C-alpha cells in the first residue's frame, strides 16, 4: 500500500524514542509545476497565444534556472524531474480544432518527438494528467522549446505545464542534516547520469493520417536510428472511428493477428492504452501502421506512441552481468496503469 | 501483503494461503437510521444546520483497515447544497480530527466507480468509534446523503496466526502515529470579480504532513471571463517562501476532484506549525468566486516535538468559519 512505501521513503522508526522521525531530505524535493517561461515576452501570466491555423506561431520554451548557495549544490544545480504533462485550452475545447506541439531539448539538441504531436495525445489535465513512464529530467540552465501550431480554427489562449519534482540539493538546511543532503545529492547524480542514456520520446506519423471514407493506407513511423525505441502506450484523436494494426516494417513481425478497432485499443492522453509489455524497436527498425477508416467519411487521425529512447547498445545478459551491470530503475515490472517508474 | 499462493519448496506444488479465508475485503456502512442521512437546509447564510452525528463503530469480530470512501447524494438534492455540504471526521478513541476544519463532502467521498482512495488507511480497532459530523451550509434546500467505506477485515480466526498477528501489531503501531488528513484553507476563500485573494493553510503543532492529493471546486454566478478554468493559483511554502510554480496555474492544472484528485508527483512535506500560502486570481470578471481547496495526505503524529526547533508561525485569527450560503 502507498503508505508502506511512503514510510520507508519519508520516515524511519527510532527505536530509542519509540516514534517515527521524518527524513529531512524530502522537504527539499517539492512537487512543482513548470509553466512556459516568463522570460518569453509572449507568455503573459502563463498564457500563450497560438495563432490561427495557417499562421506561424513563434516557438516558446520551458526554462529551468540555476540556483545555488555558496556552491553547496556540488555542481548539481537544481534539476527538475518531469512526471506528467498538463495543458489548459479554455477557448477551444473541441478535440478536432486543437493544436500540435513539438518539444525539443535545446541543451542536448534532441527532439523529444519525431514530428509534431496532437496536444491531446501527449498532455492531459490535473484530473488525469499524461503521466510519463520515463521521467524527463531537465537540468539547470536547460531549455525545452515548444513549437505550437493550430490545426484548425482561430487563435487560442493556452497554458501548458510540466508537472514533477523540483530538487534543491543546495538547501542550507543540509549543513545541519548532512546525511540527508548526501542521500539527496546521490539521487540527483543517479538521475542526471541516467538521462544521458534514457529519454522519453513520442513517436508519431509524418503529419496527420488523412483517409477518405472506407479507405485503408500504410504509414511508417520513424523513431530515427540513433537509439533503441521502447514503446509503452498509445494515444490517438481522430474525427471518426478507425481500425489499425502495427508491425515491424523490416522483419514483418506483427503486434496483433488482425486489425484492432480504435474503440477497443486506442486511448488518449488522459487514459492511454498501455502495452502490457513494452515493445522494443531496435534502432535500425521502423513501425508500419496500417489504418482503415470505419467512419465512411473523411477521417483525420493523430496517432502517437509513447515511449522512450535508449541510447545504449544491446548486450547479452551474461556478458552484461560479467561486466558488473547494476539493475536500474528501468528493470521494474510493467504496470497496467500509467505510473512513473521510480 | 497476504500472499495468495504458498509454494511447497520440496516439490513446487502451489497451495492457496489459508489466511485468505480470514483476511478479506469488506464494506462499513453507518447504522441504518443514518443511511441515508437527511440534513435540513441552513436557516441563514453562515449558520449551518448540523446533522445527527454519524457513528461508525469497529466490530468485535476483528480489526478493519479502511482504505476508501464512497458517498452519493440522492437525486432530488439541489446543486447548491451538494456543493456546500461539509463533514468533519473525528476519531473518538485517539481524540483526533482528521481535518483542520470541516471539509466539503465532495472532497472526501468518491463514487462507486472511482472511490477516494485514502492516502493513509484508517485502522479501526474493536469498538473504536469514528464520528462523522455533517453540516448543511446551504439555504437552498435539504441534503440526503448515503455513504460507505471500503475496508479490509482481519477476522478473529486470523488473529491466532503469527504472521497476521505481527502485521496487526505493526498496523497498531502505525495507527498510533499515522492517519489520513485533509487540510483546507484556514478561512473561506472568496475572490472578488477579476481580483485576487490570498489564503493560508496552516498545519498544527503536532503533525508532520505528507500531502498527496489536491482537490478543488468553485462556485460563481459569473458569466464573463474564463468559465472553464475559473481561477488561477500560485502555491508557496510559507515557511521559506519557496514557490511551487513559475507561473500561476489554473484550476484544471493543479486540482482534480474526489474521483480523480491531482496526485502530486512528489508528496509535499509540511512541517509542524508551518503554512502553505496560496495566491488566487479570479478569472471570472463579473462576479466573485468562492474557492474550496483541499489537500489530502498523511498526518504523522510527531510527539515530543521540541517547540524551539521550529519557529512558530502565527495562525491568522481562526474563528469557526463556514462555507457560507
Give the total of beta strands of chain B.
Answer: 23
Average per-residue pLDDT of chain A, rounded, comes to 87
Sum up the overall morphology of chain A in one term.
globular
- CATH structural fold name of the largest domain in chain B: Jelly Rolls
Task: Indicate the structural class of chain A.
Answer: mainly beta
- Proportion of residues in extended strands of chain A: 35-45%
Account of the protein in words:
The complex is a heterodimer of chains A (342) and B (325). Chain A has helices at 2-10, 178-195, 262-265, 317-322, and strands at residues 11-14, 19-22, 29-35, 48-50, 60-63, 80-88, 99-105, 110-111, 117-118, 130-138, 143-150, 156-167, 198-204, 209-211, 216-221, 228-238, 242-248, 260-261, 273-281, 287-293, 299-310. With 342 residues, chain A is mainly beta. Chain A folds into two domains: 25-196, no CATH class; 201-330, Jelly Rolls (Sandwich). The longest helix of chain A has 18 residues, at 178-195. Chain A is globular and about 70 Å long. Residues 327-338 of chain A have low confidence and may be disordered. By secondary structure, chain B is mostly beta strands. Chain B folds into two domains: 18-176, Jelly Rolls; 185-309, Jelly Rolls (Sandwich), CATH 2.60.120. In chain B, strands 5, 6, 8, 9, 10 and 12 form a six-stranded antiparallel beta sheet that branches. In chain B, strands 3, 4, 7, 11 and 13 form a five-stranded antiparallel beta sheet that branches. In chain B, strands 14, 15, 17, 21 and 23 form a five-stranded antiparallel beta sheet that branches. The longest helix of chain B has 16 residues, at 162-177. Chain B is globular, with a radius of gyration of 21 Å. Chains A and B meet through α1, β2, β3, β6 and β12 of A and β11, β17, β20, α3 and β21 of B.
Amino acid at each position: 500500500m502507498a503508505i508502506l512505501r511512503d514510510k520507508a521513503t519519508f520516515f524511519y522508526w527510532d527505536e530509542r524514542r519509540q516514534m517515527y522521525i521524518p527524513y529531512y531530505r524530502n522537504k527539499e524535493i517539492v512537487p512543482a509545476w513548470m509553466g512556459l517561461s516568463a522570460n518569453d515576452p509572449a507568455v503573459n501570466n502563463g498564457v500563450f497565444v497560438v495563432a490561427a491555423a495557417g499562421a506561424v506561431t513563434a516557438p516558446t520554451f520551458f526554462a529551468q534556472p540555476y540556483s545555488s548557495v555558496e556552491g553547496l549544490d556540488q555542481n548539481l544545480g537544481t534539476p527538475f524531474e518531469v512526471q506528467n504533462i498538463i495543458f489548459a485550452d479554455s477557448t477551444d475545447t473541441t478535440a478536432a480544432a486543437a493544436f500540435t506541439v513539438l518539444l525539443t531539448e535545446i541543451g542536448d539538441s534532441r527532439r523529444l518527438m519525431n514530428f509534431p504531436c496532437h496536444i491531446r495525445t501527449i498532455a492531459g489535465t490535473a484530473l488525469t494528467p499524461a503521466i510519463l513512464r520515463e521521467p524527463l529530467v531537465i537540468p539547470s540552465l536547460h531549455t525545452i522549446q515548444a513549437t505550437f501550431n493550430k490545426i484548425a480554427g482561430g487563435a487560442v489562449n493556452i497554458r501548458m505545464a510540466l508537472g514533477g519534482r523540483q530538487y534543491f540539493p543546495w538547501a542550507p538546511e543540509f549543513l545541519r542534516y548532512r546525511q540527508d543532503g548526501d542521500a539527496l545529492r546521490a539521487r540527483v547524480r543517479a538521475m542526471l547520469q541516467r538521462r544521458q542514456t534514457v529519454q522519453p520520446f513520442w513517436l508519431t506519423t509524418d503529419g496527420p493520417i488523412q483517409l477518405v471514407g472506407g479507405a485503408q493506407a500504410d504509414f511508417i513511423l520513424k523513431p530515427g536510428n540513433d537509439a533503441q525505441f521502447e514503446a509503452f502506450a498509445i494515444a490517438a484523436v481522430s474525427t471518426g472511428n478507425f481500425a489499425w494494426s502495427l508491425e515491424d516494417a523490416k522483419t514483418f513481425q506483427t503486434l496483433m493477428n488482425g486489425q484492432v478497432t480504435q474503440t477497443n485499443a486506442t486511448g488518449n492522453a488522459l487514459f492511454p492504452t498501455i502495452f502490457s509489455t513494452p515493445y522494443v524497436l531496435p534502432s535500425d527498425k521502423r513501425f508500419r501502421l496500417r489504418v482503415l477508416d470505419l467512419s465512411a467519411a473523411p477521417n483525420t487521425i493523430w496517432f502517437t506512441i509513447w515511449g522512450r529512447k535508449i541510447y545504449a547498445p544491446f548486450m547479452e545478459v551474461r556478458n552484461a552481468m560479467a561486466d558488473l551491470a547494476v539493475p536500474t530503475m528501468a528493470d521494474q515490472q510493467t504496470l497496467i496503469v500509467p505510473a512513473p517508474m521510480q | 501483503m497476504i500472499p495468495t499462493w504458498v509454494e511447497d519448496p520440496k516439490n513446487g506444488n502451489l497451495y492457496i494461503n489459508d489466511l485468505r479465508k480470514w483476511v478479506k475485503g469488506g464494506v462499513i456502512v453507518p447504522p441504518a437510521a443514518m443511511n441515508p442521512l437527511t440534513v435540513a437546509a441552513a436557516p441563514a447564510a453562515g449558520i449551518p444546520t448540523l446533522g445527527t452525528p454519524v457513528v461508525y463503530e469497529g466490530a468485535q469480530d476483528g480489526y478493519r483497515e479502511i482504505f476508501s470512501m464512497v458517498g452519493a447524494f440522492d437525486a432530488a438534492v439541489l446543486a447548491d447544497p451538494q456543493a456546500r455540504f461539509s463533514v468533519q471526521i473525528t476519531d473518538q478513541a485517539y481524540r483526533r480530527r482528521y481535518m483542520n476544519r470541516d471539509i466539503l463532502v465532495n472532497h472526501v467521498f468518491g463514487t462507486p466507480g472511482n472511490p477516494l482512495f485514502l492516502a493513509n488507511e484508517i485502522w479501526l480497532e474493536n469498538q473504536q468509534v469514528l464520528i462523522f459530523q455533517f453540516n448543511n451550509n446551504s439555504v437552498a434546500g435539504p441534503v440526503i446523503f448515503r455513504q460507505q467505506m471500503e475496508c479490509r477485515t482481519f477476522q478473529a480466526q486470523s488473529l491466532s496466526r503469527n504472521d497476521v498477528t505481527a502485521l496487526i501489531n505493526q498496523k497498531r503501531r502505525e495507527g498510533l502515529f499515522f492517519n489520513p488528513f485533509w487540510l483546507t484553507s484556514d478561512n473561506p476563500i472568496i475572490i472578488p470579480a477579476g481580483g485576487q485573494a490570498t489564503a493560508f493553510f496552516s498545519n498544527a503543532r503536532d503533525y508532520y504532513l505528507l500531502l498527496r492529493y489536491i482537490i478543488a471546486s468553485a462556485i460563481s454566478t459569473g458569466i464573463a471571463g474564463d468559465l472553464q478554468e475559473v481561477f488561477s493559483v500560485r502555491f508557496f511554502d510559507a515557511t521559506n517562501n519557496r514557490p511551487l510554480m513559475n507561473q500561476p496555474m489554473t484550476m484544471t492544472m493543479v486540482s482534480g476532484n474526489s474521483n480523480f484528485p491531482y496526485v502530486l508527483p512528489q508528496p509535499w512535506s509540511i512541517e509542524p506549525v508551518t503554512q502553505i500560502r496560496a495566491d488566487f486570481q479570479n478569472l471570472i470578471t463579473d462576479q466573485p468566486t468562492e474557492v474550496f481547496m483541499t489537500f489530502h495526505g498523511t498526518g504523522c503524529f510527531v510527539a515530543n516535538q521540541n517547540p524551539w526547533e521550529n519557529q512558530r508561525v502565527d495562525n491568522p485569527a481562526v474563528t469557526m468559519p463556514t462555507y457560507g450560503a
